[in-house]
Amino acid sequence: MFKMMKNVDVAFRYIRAISLLTAGGCIVICSLIIYKSYELAGKTQDRIYVLAGGKVLEAFASERKDNIGVEGRDHVKMFHFYFFTLSPDEKAIQQNINKALYLADRSAKSQYDDLKERNYYSNLISGNVNQTIQVDSVMLDTQQYPYYFRCFASQELTRPTSIVQRRLVTEGFLRNVSRSENNAHGFLVERWNVIENTDVNIKSR
């Protein structure tokens, strides 16, 4: 009888040990699955898919600070593109200027008002002049805030009788603002100043 009770006791201990090991293993496996699920969910949240030209492109989310240089330079390029791309059409000029003024502070508005007072835009229209700009490079200092930039660009003025090529150098600062439909990068050009805007070549047509 004692031998049978001893066997039952040993069997119970074995069953208890196996049950504890099984429960512990289940807890470990469940914890690992939950951890991996959260890790996978976090990674997928950093990815977005963009449909462009009928193709699905994968994009990755990143911190604002990781893209300051790229976005800042592109903001400066877009501002100069809108401000200096002018055609002999009053409505087209006003549309581009309005887009540019969303990207800058009153310093750009002052430059625009000055050009308008000197009949610059009226002369473009009456002279049938088309003005384009090519931004060659943008130097951006991200070590200080607001971020100082210097922009180097080439302008081309196509007149009925000639083509004028100009060298343009400007400088200013970039300040962080909220992103919007009119300001996708969330920067504002401030204290903008034209350092140089000189003719470098004139060709007859």
Structure, explained:
The structure is a single chain. The protein has 205 residues and is an alpha+beta fold. It folds into two domains: 2-47; 64-204, Roll (Nuclear Transport Factor 2, Chain: A). It has five helices and six strands, in the order αββααααββββ. The protein has a four-stranded antiparallel sheet, with helices on one face. Strand 1 (47-52) and strand 2 (55-60) form a beta hairpin. The chain starts with a helix and ends with a strand. The chain crosses the membrane at residues 14-35. This is Bacteroides conjugative transposon TraK protein. It comes from Chitinophaga niabensis. Keywords: Membrane, Transmembrane, Transmembrane helix.
CATH class of the largest domain: Alpha Beta
- SS-derived structural category: alpha+beta
Q: Taking Cα atoms only, what radius of gyration do you get, to the nearest Å?
A: 32 Å
β-sheet strand percentage:
25-35%
**pLDDT average, as an integer?**
83
According to CATH, what is the topology of the largest domain?
Nuclear Transport Factor 2, Chain: A
Any low-confidence stretches, pLDDT <50, length ≥5?
A: none
Please state the second-level CATH architecture of the largest domain: Roll
Number of separate structural domains: 2
Q: Strand count, sense and closure of the main sheet?
A: 4 strands, antiparallel
Number of strands: 6
Counted by DSSP, the helix tally is: 5
Within CATH, the superfamily of the largest domain carries the name: VirB8 protein
- Outline: rod-shaped
Distance between the termini: 120 Å
Q: What would you call the quaternary organization?
A: single chain
